[in-house]
Amino acid sequence: MKILTSWLRSYLPGLAVTDRQLADDLTLRGIAVDGVFDLGANGSLFEMDITTNRVDAMNHYGIAREAATIYGLKLKPLETSLPAPKPGPAFPVRIEDPALCGRFTARVLRGINVQPSTEIIAERFRLLEQKLISNAVDATNYIVLAMGHPTHAFDLDKIEGALIIRRAHKGERLKTLDEIDRVLDPEDLIVADEKKPLALAGVMGGWDSRITAETKNVLVEAAWFDPVSIRRSSKRHLLHTDASHRFERGADFNAPPVASALVSQLLLESGGHQVGDFVDVMISEAEKHTAKRSSIGFAVSEARRILGATEDPEGITAATAETILTGLGCELEPRGNETYQVTLPSWRLDLEREIDLIEEVARVYGYNRFRNTLPAFTGSVIELPWAAKESAVRTALLAMGWTEAISSTFCAAADAALFAPQPNSAVAMGNPLSEEAGMLRPSLLPGMVAMLTLNLNRDVEDAALFEAGTVFSGSPEKVDERPALAIGATGRALGEKPTDFYDLKGTIEALLAKFASRSLYFDNLLLPAWLHPGRGARAVLDGSTVAYFGQLHPAEAERRKLKQPVFVGEIYLDRTYRQPLRQPLARDLSRYQAVRRDFSLLFPDPTPYATIEDAMRNLDISDLRAFAPKEILREAKSISAGHFSLLLGTVFQSQERTLREEELQEFSQRIISAMEAIGGKLRTS
Amino acid sequence: MCLDGQSSFILKKNMPEDAIPHLSGYEEAELDQAFASVSHEVEASAGALATPEAVESFRLYWLGRKQGRLKAISDAWLKSAPPEARKPLGQRFNKLKAEIEQRLEAASGASQATVLDSEAIDITLPGTRRQPGAEHPLIKTLNEIVGIFQRMGYSVGVGPEVETDYYNFESLNFPPGHPARDTQDTLVIARQDRKPLRDRLLMRTHTSPVQIRTMEQQPPPVRIVIPGKVHRNDAADATHSPIFHQVEGLCVDTGITFSDLKGTLDHAMKELFGSSVKTRFFPSFFPFTEPSADVQISCPFCGGAGCRKCKHSGWIELLGCGMVDPSVFGFVAQKQPAYDPKKISGFAFGMGVDRIAMMKYGITDISLMYSGDLRFLEQFA
How does pLDDT run across A330-353, given as a tens digit for each residue? Predict the structure, then answer.
């Protein structure tokens, strides 16, 4: 909204501060001036940003009232006198829906001349870059800018019979001023005559009863409509107008007669006269919850309790509060002990409770005049149960070279179907951002694959990303949220050689090693469809599936035109977090020498390493400190077809003494026998 | 040990094997003359000790325990020496040995330097980095903000991203049909029309519902900081994303005041942006706080002088906050009667993490933060 300071000052003859100072002072009191534009001799133009609750300040007079309160000035009253009307019948007005229309006024002006606006209106519209139409139309717009209340002028000769304010009938139509033929909804409040709808009440007038160059006689409407009804009509017809903006935020119930008089003054400047008495139909129920709403109590002590310490040691005094509230239009009736009964101004429907008055006091007093204090606290800090786990996982991933990323919360239906851990568990959006974002993500993998794809498409060939986030499942009735983790890598992001299955497995092993568990194993039973069937695995921690990972299925990679293999995995953090973090426990270091022995073995394919590992563990040699595969060879000259060689490294060490050669011989023999039992044999080089 | 050809040649040429120099007598002058000649021989043979191999040959030739020339000479000369000449002879042999050792030391130092020289590398080549992954600037900023409030005694609170209309709007004093709802265009879950409005599911538009959920669970006092992802049905541009992050805070107790709110946020902003940062508060409007305020900080980039980042105003708007509206306590009190607005009071605040991260790190396009583009993310390693 734009404000001309020259116009504003016309209501505040005593205002001495500069425009710039005025802008600062208003802004600090919540009437935000976003921009100040110098208009030379015409003062300044303020670009305002008024919060939705302050519809009373969306006009020149309202802002002048704020300035008057800030500077303790007297505000010039609005001049509303009109010549006495010529005798005539009162125009018949019927409010049929008193819940939606609280007040309706009508004034008949005859013999007016529709012509271009001149002088002050033309000048101010020019400065505000507001389009001039004709004196009759401009008058209503001008008064909205002046004091905020929307009015409407009908061509009186187009009205057939009485004015009726009612809900539309089903199927009724109205061509509005924007020349759109609208089908009305039975929930729409309209202004009609006895034959037809004339206007969408409080939103927009009708085309057929508009003011034209030929108009001679006018009916000026100024009314008060129910905010919720106006808002619904405005939304229903996608028709947000200056009038609806104000009515839906709660207009001043006492303003219609004032606005009507001001508009009429302007119209009569070019000739004509009022005929018949001013018609003012008021619904007392509506008045009771607006202009005549109950007074409320206000205690200075309560203001102090909420607001606290000021820089000025005196703090908020009764005198300060009285001055501020009176300046804003409240009437204060002292009730002793610095308490008051306060009658609220009709234009401030946002004031309803004591706290609203406390805010007004703080606002006008100036927020920055309050001290910066820190509160004492009697409670205790409650640790989030999984905060440490989350942090352990994140730190480990970063340290292992994975970069943190965030992807969309939504995914395409096809991706949801492919990656969802349970079939048909993904939840659809009602108003998706796009077709590609139609579902709440049931998995982090759609986002992860999309991010890897994006990088490959931009020639970033080495990428290792992780995302920790929420995944969703359920139905429109109930949506479950679970924490999950996705990892995804391609190229040489994690070392010298291209990322493979084992990089992901190693990462998952390292992450799971952060948690206390009795067992962890990997298998490839029932792999999801997105995984390469031969290069995917499931991790099972204490009997619970905690992750699936491996190479993205080549068909999927092909479909996404990925130029190199990508490896992805999802870890179900809700399950992982069920385990406590592992508490490291120090073990006494052996003082005796460790002995390394390597076994060169030959196995027939397929002998999974897990079988070898199990056989080694089942030996239960307590002095076997560690063993690991050091080298696996296939298809070498010395290896017969269908076999592979394994160099198995072992470390023996006792806690109690130096191991003797004959003990080591015995251990070796047992290992060789165990390997033979599962089909292996020692290679004789 | 392997001798290279050239060194061997020099050694052989200058040191004929087994020729014990002649000693004419045991008088001082005769001794001096004989030792000077051996000394010359040492000097001559030490001429080209450039490599470790040559040095070792020299050592073996002169000082070798069994075949060493010094031993051979001393054995020969001492054998025939009269007893009174043994002492001067011994002294001279010790001196000669010291001389040889000195030459050896000098030569081996020089030859080691030569070797180390040959091992020199180009230290201007780039280092071999073990590159850890990069923290996401948004999460990093979020953690920083949360950490500040944790140090002030706040617990971390979290809540669902899919909320009901009741928690996201109604209980925060956004009545049905209220224009304030327009400011937060909402993404809704499919097929909600048949439910009562309050039960309809939507993507939370702010982290504020967690305030209500926390208070319902826990009587006052409460001090929580709530980080989280939120969604709005906004068109994306360089500074707007339908997905973004907020950090929200709530402090409720007896005697919590607006000046406490000011002090808390002033402290937090100083910790986040440096102690020279100033804050100022403007009246604002949020349905769930009253009084409500917007907070600006003096521009941490130009110190308030005016620059591009603060649009030449010297100030940057960062936070929304206010005293918890009594009607919010009213909604909570339905489940937790201890929230009696006549007895307790509290403040709440919220900030957009994306904007703060963008400002801190000079990010000009918000969508980069949700792209996973490594060219962008790598910069934060």
Answer: 999 999 999 999 999 999 999 999
Sign of CA dihedral B27, B33, B36, B40: negative
Distance in Å, alpha carbon of A395 to nearest chain B alpha carbon: 9
Q: How many angstroms separate the CA of residue B318 from the nearest CA in chain A?
A: 16
Query: Position of tokens 């802004």?
Result: A27
For B187, the closest of A384, A405, A433 (CB atoms) is: A433
Cβ count near A226 (within 10 Å): 21
Asked if residue A142 lies in contact with residue A258, where contact means CB atoms within 8 angstroms, the answer is no
Find tokens 């009022």 and name the residue. A274
Taking an 8 Å cut-off on Cβ atoms, the answer to whether A374 and B293 are in contact is: no
Token pair belonging to A419: 């990656």
pLDDT at B138: 97
Which B-chain residues 32-51 have CB contacts (< 8 A) with chain A?
none
Enumerate the H helices of A429-567 as residue ranges. Answer: 445-457, 501-512, 554-559
Going by C-alpha positions, the residue among B167, B171, B173 that lies closest to residue B286 is: B173
Distance separating alpha carbons of residues A546 and A571, to the nearest angstrom:
6
Is the CB of residue B132 less than 8 Å away from at least one CB of chain A? yes
Instruction: Write the residue in A308, A458, A467 that is nearest to B258 by C-beta.
Output: A308
Hey, which bits of A583-658 come out as E strands? 595-604, 624-634, 643-652
What Rg, from alpha-carbon coordinates, does chain A have? 40
Could you give the C-alpha distances from A551 to A375, A415, A536, A557, in angstroms and in order?
A: 54, 17, 6, 9
Residue A81, token pair as written in the block: 């006198």
The two counts, helices (H) then strands (E), for chain A are 20, 30
Task: List, for residues B318-335, the tens digit of each pLDDT value.
Answer: 999 999 999 999 999 999
Q: Between A27, A248, A355, which is nearest B282 by CB?
A: A27
Averaged confidence pLDDT in chain B: 89
Q: What is the pLDDT of residue B10?
A: 43
Q: A673 by DSSP, 3-state: which?
A: helix
Strand partners, A221: A106, A152
DSSP assignment string, A304-335:
HHHH--BSSTT-S-HHHHHHHHHHTT-EEEE-
Alpha-carbon distance A436 to nearest alpha carbon in chain B (angstroms): 14
- B340 Cβ under 8 Å from any chain A Cβ: no
Residue labelled with tokens 């990656």: A419
Query: Mutate which of B234, B259, B289, B349 to disrupt the A interface (most A C-beta within 10 Å)?
Result: B259
Residue of B156, B360, B141 whose CA lies nearest to B249: B156
Contacts of A113 (CB under 8 A, 6+ apart): A135, A270, A271, A272
Give the closest-approach CA distance of B133 to chain A in angstroms. 4
Kindly list the residues from chain A whose CB atom is less than 8 angstroms away from the CB atom of residue B222. Answer: 379
Buried b (16+ CB within 10 A) or exposed e, B154-185: bbbbbbbbbbbbbbbbbbbbbeeebbbbeebe
Question: Which residues make Cβ contacts (< 8 Å) with residue A462, sequence separation at least 6?
Answer: A490, A491, A492, A493
Strands A544-552 and A566-572: antiparallel
pLDDT digits (tens, 9 = 90+) for B132-182: 999 999 999 999 999 999 999 999 999 999 999 999 999 999 988 776 777
Query: Which of B153, B283, B377 minimises the CB distance to A405?
Result: B377
Neighbours of A270 (CB within 10 A): 18
The β-bridge partners of A567 are A489, A551
Separation of alpha carbons B89 and B64, rounded Å: 20
Q: What is the pTM of this model?
A: 0.84
Report the alpha-carbon distance of residue A240 to residue A233 in Å, rounded.
9
**What CA–CA distances, in Å, run from A280 to A83, A256, A483, B45?**
18, 9, 62, 131
Burial class of residue A593, CB neighbours in 10 A (0-12, 13-18, 19+): exposed
